[in-house]
Records
---
Amino acid sequence: MSPAHNKSESVGAALDALDGGGEPDRSVLRDAVRALLSDLARTAPGRSVEVRIPPFGAIQCVAGPRHTRGTPPNVVETDPMTWLLVATGRLGWSDAVDSGRVRASGTRTDLAPYLPVHPS
């Protein structure tokens, strides 16, 4: 099995757990979050926005001025379950931001053009 296939499998397993009325195991959710972050990094290459999904991962993406020191000016942060939902299109970007489930600060943090990164 290739690493790419394993990543797709973790996202599928996490969504299957949700569809079954449960929550994904922590390791499945971790792998799904990391896979979806990797997909976003490939979809929106760059280093102007930092996307943080604690405690599982963080990436830099979106073309534009590169951040080099201190707190990045463009930061997106959310919890793992919300990231799974937003990245797969099960929760809309603007709904997640408007409800406070996603915190996005900075002028380049609208990720809507890059989502979903792994359609469900």
Note: Residues 1-6 have pLDDT under 50 and may be disordered.
---
Amino acid sequence: MKLSQKEIRILLKEWNLAWGKHDLDKVLALFHDDIFFENWTGAYIKGIKALRKAWEPWFNNHGNFRFLEEETFIDEQHQKVLYRWILEWPSSEPGFEDKPEIRKGVDVIHFKDGKIINKLTYTKTTIEIDNKRLPLHL
């Protein structure tokens, strides 16, 4: 099943709304059972059950996060998306704990059977706290 560009945009809108509501069940419903997720540290997870297990603590402990869409590029033919985002959340950086942090990145998203099969996350190596650019500590 191939998604049209319009269907991909609708799915991404649902995805953004689910993230905005911090609704892990709705976020995961948009992923393929065989999801491959790689985060900004290079760590990766295979399978929807493993992703739920990994994300549950993050959703529970980082309730004040929000993603803002900056730009989205859709390749309908290859069922791929480049999604540029801004993450705003309480920082966990040493010396800046709980201060508002801004992090910027890109997700490379692939679709299969109408769901997200690959989500590869890349982030800048700098973050913004108190209007200052600081190196990211992973």
Note: The chain is about 25% helix and 45% strand.
---
Amino acid sequence: MAALPENTVSTPPATPERPMIEVILDCLDDAKAEEVVAVDITGKSSLADHMVVASGRSQRHVGAVADQMVTALRDAGYGKPRIEGLPHCDWVLVDAGDVIVHIFRPEVREFYNIEKMWQADFAADAH
């Protein structure tokens, strides 16, 4: 007997049910990240819609938070984000596309203070 043809209709990839920013903020809360600040940068930058800054207690905690975020984003249907800084874990950047997440050790975060720069009201915003 001849084999029946397999179903050739492909199903489209599942669309994520929750907004990416929610997935990320919930993940940071679950991972016990500290001092989480979410900044809406829509209109301030074409890089992303949101920037999130958080702290980990140690290099190990920073790396664990980043790893947990990759898993949470993948499980929610967002694929795998790009990651920088994992070998040293002083400052890990997770680029998920619409949301960029910075996870710092407290001393490094205090030194760079990047959330202050993005939260500032720019003179162009006043016009």
Note: The mean pLDDT is 87.
